[in-house]
Amino acid sequence: MIFYQCNCRGIKNKSAELQLHIESHGQKPDVIALQETRGRPRIPGYVTYADPSEEGTAVLARSNVAGTQHLTAQKGCEHTLVDIHARTIGSGGNLFVMSAYCRPLGVAARRGTGTNRDTVPNLSWLARTPDATWRNEDVSLGSDHDILSVTTREPKSRAEIGTARITDLDRMRKCGAEAAESSAEA
């Protein structure tokens, strides 16, 4: 699975650039965790999970990746918690993805300089996943944070798409009427 994590500092004017970045890569991320969204992000092909009472974080999952959002009573840090339903994660169960953002209280938590802006890097962590790689995408979307990509080396989990079954309603009604007539005669 491929995960992106980005503090976008407002997604409204950056969603098209993020979508272009996603489309330009051969493998699209399965899950995208965003912080400082300042609104509800929408990217075609992804389902957006976000707390309706907050506008600070969101988790986007590809439309063929099943997930359930969990709303928690935790206060202090804005967050979005999503349970990714993946049969291939292993015996440990499903994969929980949280996008969290804690606003600084009075004192800036991040200080940049003209020569070194990355004084407090973003954080991504995984548990029970021994084969994972992290890389900086070197794309900032106009923010002072770059997109981070985390790739795990396990089988991909995709929703199974079955064959649609179309019911012939006229035929069903006719068969139902015939069955009712034969039971009435008996």
How many distinct helices? 2
Strand order of the largest sheet: 3-4-2-1-9-8
What fraction, in percent, of the residue positions are helical? 10-25%
| CATH C-level name | Alpha Beta
Order of helices and strands: EHEEEEEEEEH
Low-confidence stretches are: 106-111
Structural class: alpha+beta
Global shape: elongated
CATH topology name, in short, is Deoxyribonuclease I, Chain A
* Rg, Cα atoms, Å: 23 Å
Report mean pLDDT, rounded to a whole number.
Answer: 75
Number of strand segments: 9
The number of domains is 1
Give the CATH architecture. 4-Layer Sandwich
In whole angstroms, how far apart are the ends? 61 Å
Largest sheet, in brief, is: 6 strands, mixed
What is the strand content?
25-35%
Protein name: Endonuclease/exonuclease/phosphatase domain-containing protein
InterPro entries: Endo/exonu/phosph_ase_sf
Organism: Haemaphysalis longicornis
